What we know:
globular, 34% helix, Alpha-Beta Plaits, alpha+beta, Aminopeptidase, 6-stranded mixed beta sheet, 14 helices
Amino acid sequence: MTVRDVVARNADSYIGWLREACAIPSLAGRPEDLDRMTQWLEARFDDLGADVRRLTYEGAPDAVLARMGGGPKRVLVYDHYDVQPVDPIDLWESPPFEPTIKDGVFFARGAADNKGDLVARLAALDVYREVYGDLPVQVKFLVEGEEETGSKSFEGIATRYAGDLAADGCIWEGTGIDHAGRPELVFGAKGLAYVELISRGLNDDQHSSVAVIAPSPVWRLVEALATLRTPDGRVLIDGFYDDVVAPSEADMELLRALPFEEEAERTRLGVETFVGGDTGIDLVRRYFFEPTCNIAGIVAGFTVPGASKTVLPKEALAKLDMRLVPDQDPADICAKLRKHLDERGFSDIEINTNLSMEHPVRSPADSAIGKAAVAAAHGVFDQEPAISPMMIGTGPMYPVARGLGIPTVSPAGVCRPDSNIHAPNEHCRVDDFLKIVEYTVAWLRAFAEDDA
């Protein structure tokens, strides 16, 4: 029987695995449920004949390391088992931890990020064993439980267990499938500096009539925020762009060949123009190779919709996420932010940097694992793959790709642009999930057979 035949025959079973995984609310702050998820993984890996152990690190949920297969080549597969919070819960059309299939679409928190890819890969091991027998390469699964809160301990885990994680290539989560159904592959990730800016100024909230004589912490914060970025997206923090590495000509060749559906993206976002008015190759270059300074949220005063309360708030808080590109350093960017505010008279604005910090990273596209992932995509999907130098989002790829020196690729996965990851009604298509099972078998075969 072919791989596709076996996937189709076992589809109900593999979808059942995904139901089980997505029914576990593996959220930060719920250690019992995080442990339930690790136990589920241990049981599933055990059924697949893997050698399983937990990797511990102080203050972090346990990671799971599963090893199986043989042969001279080694591939590390990175996934995570934690999920995003479900708020606002009232916008969900079905309970987030009661997986529901409607019209061929699987709804649940974690369906697209990242349990869909994780379970598809587990299913692929089962398929591979049935169709071909023993794995021809050493496969190491590293599944952590802290990714959605910034993987604060991941660099420590990678360093502590470097010998156990050594590999010739790494498969990183799953990038996705684009608007037109093309498999997406990337060879790096943007970094992140996530901070809170806090403005304090009064002992207590005051009646707003006092605003005529008392300074407003909210206005103070808004005025500070206004110094950080121009309307066309240019970040004004002094020295922010000093370490940015411009795309090479090889990078630009990839971007020119990359199908980017501008109209579909405008429709998805509900906008008429993109920031700065860019279009064509300038827009694509900006999308992948420029850093950002985004206001992720502002909290201050009275915010009940449809009601009024005249108040002068005693404090205000803004959350900033700054997506970084090679070779920016999150600690350096935070220091430059502090200096920028101080020099403009905002030394009273506090900065909390004890949040998500990730380094950006690039990995070579011509590695053995990279070529295997691309070749397999050509063989499994009906459309040509869409290949880009790095993802527009962030993940803790740096400790593996740079720290351990393992060539890394994030291949096609179950996520589509409209999968609502990090939002209510997260979902993946059942057909995509089964396709990623087949694709995983294909890249395993391609990696084993590559002579490089």
